[in-house]
Design brief:
Strand order of the largest sheet: 1-3-2-4-5
Number of strands: 19
Bound molecules: 2-acetamido-2-deoxy-1-O-phosphono-alpha-D-glucopyranose, magnesium ion
Strand content: 15-25%
CATH superfamily of the largest domain: Alpha-D-Glucose-1,6-Bisphosphate, subunit A, domain 3
Distance between the termini: 54 Å
Shape: globular
Number of helices: 18
Structural class: alpha/beta
Helix content: 40-55%
Radius of gyration: 24 Å
Oligomer: single chain
């Protein structure tokens, strides 16, 4: 059968469900994400686009991940991963949106061919797509649709079945670098565990981890994968006592339910189940294991959370010190990348105390990742716990090739080289970030309380505001100021002036039909008052047409 006929026939098995009120499917920050029963046709069409992208990029493997991360169990999502394990290039988000929204199967074939012509894609060269999914039962139907698209588009594929999101990103990069000098690791799930476990042992090098770490896995894919990973740590080299909780993947309805990193961050409390043990060092993954939040419940003072800003400043401080001990301070540009949601106290601590450069980007990890790549060592985290540390090829070479003049310098260089392998270079990875935190705490001989003492967060509040038309709100200065509607920013500025150490901004959400208002100030009551004022400004401007 001819290429077009095969696509047409396969597409008929996976029709697209038209959305209510003529709305369009949109490739957003997290790919296509919505109720799973709307996604079968979308997954099919994403398969076609991934095949085109592979051919456009000279047959490099493209990844597709089926997950809805921290969303409820009824949702699912489809997103594309680029050859080095990065998020899909922005220009192609538009193409994905165009291809997915074709109303009929015939339109789909027509737009597909239009893309082939416009992008000058050679359909005769091989294409390769690899994919995985989280534990959601709906993932089965979606990968079937995806595989049907790949068969119809004469594309080689590998189904890695159940994976965490960062594992799929690892596999994409490993596949595309296999057999080259920049090989990222063995092309298998086992290869991922082996690489990280060996780096963990090297990074610990004789240091001791204090007490038990409890890990809440949001009843998602992180649970089984963490259990699996732990088998790769040689007990005689590192004693790591981990208690895995909320790891039930047999009851899909409990996924992300009252647990996980998103619950902890947004509710600012520990999951009620299992009952929090006072003082226990605890962390939470989200449903696809790419976000990480640490916390403990103090017998005296109650719940205390260490979020993405804290992980970022901890990593920047530790790596900054190692770079100095390694004698590389003058050669390495270290930068920290945050969004406007980062607590102002963390920004101050990093820029004034650690004396490191801080850059603010718009929300969404693809923006942070991109800016972090501009440094030799780029630390980036969103406050919600998604992030990683990127090392440039020059930095990795320097860690390996610098000849140490003292045992202390050798130790620093070895630890840096180990961190280069331990920390996922493709995307934020809860498992790898958690090991990084454990390594740092062990090196510093710190408890969570010691970590928390580095600075004091400014009290803050984040509010979701429903407005008639969120698109009325446009931002500038990395989303920290509104350029439209005219007059709104001046009113926010007036409100901010009334409070001490205050900062506030408003922006349209990229993932929900709402605006978000963030406010921080010297005291809790001032932060709340400021947030209320700014919410009123947004409500007023959001309703006026
Ligand atoms: C304040 C906030 O947490 N915003 C989240 C949220 O984006 P919004 O554009 O604010 O809806 O979802 C994004 C994707 O998961 C995540 O990157 C981001 O941090
Ligand atoms: Mg996630």
């Amino acid at each position: 059968m001819a290429h077009n006929d095969k696509i047409l026939a396969a597409s008929q098995k996976h029709p697209l469900v038209p959305l209510e009120r003529g709305q369009l499917y949109k490739y957003g920050t997290a790919g296509f994400r919505m109720r799973a029963d709307l996604l079968e046709g979308v997954a099919f069409r994403v398969g076609l686009l991934a095949a085109l992208r592979s051919r456009k990029l000279n047959s490099q493997a493209i990844g597709v991940m089926i997950t809805a991360s921290h969303n409820p169990a009824v949702d699912n999502g489809v997103k594309i991963v680029d050859p080095m394990g990065e998020m899909l290039e922005q220009d192609w988000e538009r193409l994905a949106t165009a291809l997915v929204n074709c109303p009929t199967h015939e339109d789909l074939v027509e737009v597909y061919n239009k893309l082939v012509a416009e992008l000058k894609i050679d359909l005769t060269i091989p294409a390769k797509v690899i994919y995985g999914r989280d534990t959601r039962p709906s993932g089965h139907t979606l990968v079937t649709a995806l595989a049907d698209a790949l068969v119809a588009a004469d594309t080689e594929y590998v189904d890695y079945k159940i994976l965490t999101t960062p594992q799929l990103h690892y596999l994409v990069r490993a596949t595309n670098t296999e057999g080259t000098p920049s090989s990222y690791g063995k092309v298998s799930e086992v290869g991922y565990y082996e690489k990280i476990a060996s780096a963990f042992v090297r990074a610990m090098k004789g240091r001791k981890i204090d007490g038990t770490l409890t890990v809440d896995c949001a009843n998602g894919v992180g649970g089984p994968k963490l259990h699996e990973f732990l088998k790769y740590i040689p007990k005689d080299k590192v004693a790591f006592d981990v208690k895995v909780v909320n790891d039930d993947v047999l009851r899909p309805e409990v996924l992300n339910l009252d647990c996980g990193a998103d619950f902890v961050k947004t509710k600012q409390r520990a999951p009620p189940i299992p009952k929090p043990q006072p003082g226990a060092r605890t962390c939470s993954f989200d449903g696809d294991a790419d976000r990480l939040i640490y916390y403990w419940v103090d017998p005296q003072t109650g719940f205390f959370m260490l979020d993405g800003d804290r992980i970022s400043s901890l990593a920047a401080s530790f790596i900054g010190d190692l770079i100095e001990s390694a004698g590389l301070k003058d050669d390495m540009r270290i930068g920290v990348v945050q969004t406007a949601y980062a607590n102002g106290a963390s920004t101050n601590y990093i820029s004034q105390h650690l004396k490191l450069k801080v850059i603010c980007t718009p929300t969404g990890v693809k923006h942070l990742h991109h800016v972090a790549q501009g440094f030799d060592i780029g630390v980036y985290f969103e406050a919600n716990g998604h992030g990683t540390v990127l090392f440039s090829p020059d930095a990795l070479n320097a860690f390996r090739d610098t000849k140490p003049q003292s045992p202390a310098q050798k130790d620093a260089l070895d630890t840096l080289a180990a961190l280069g392998d331990l920390i996922n270079q493709t995307v934020g990875d809860a498992l790898s970030d958690m090991l990084m935190v454990e390594v740092i705490l062990a090196h510093k001989n710190w408890t969570l309380r010691d970590w928390a003492m580095t600075y004091t967060d400014l009290p803050n509040r984040l509010v979701r505001v429903e407005v008639a038309d969120k698109d009325l709100f446009e931002t500038t200065d990395a989303e920290r100021r509104l350029s439209k509607p005219s007059g709104a920013q001046e009113e926010i500025d007036e409100a901010v002036k009334k409070y001490k150490d205050a900062r506030s901004f408003a922006r349209a959400s990229g993932t929900e039909n709402a605006c978000r208002v963030y406010a921080e100030a010297a005291t809790r009551s001032e932060a709340n008052e400021l947030a209320d004022r700014v919410v009123r400004v947004i409500e007023r401007y959001g309703s006026s047409q």
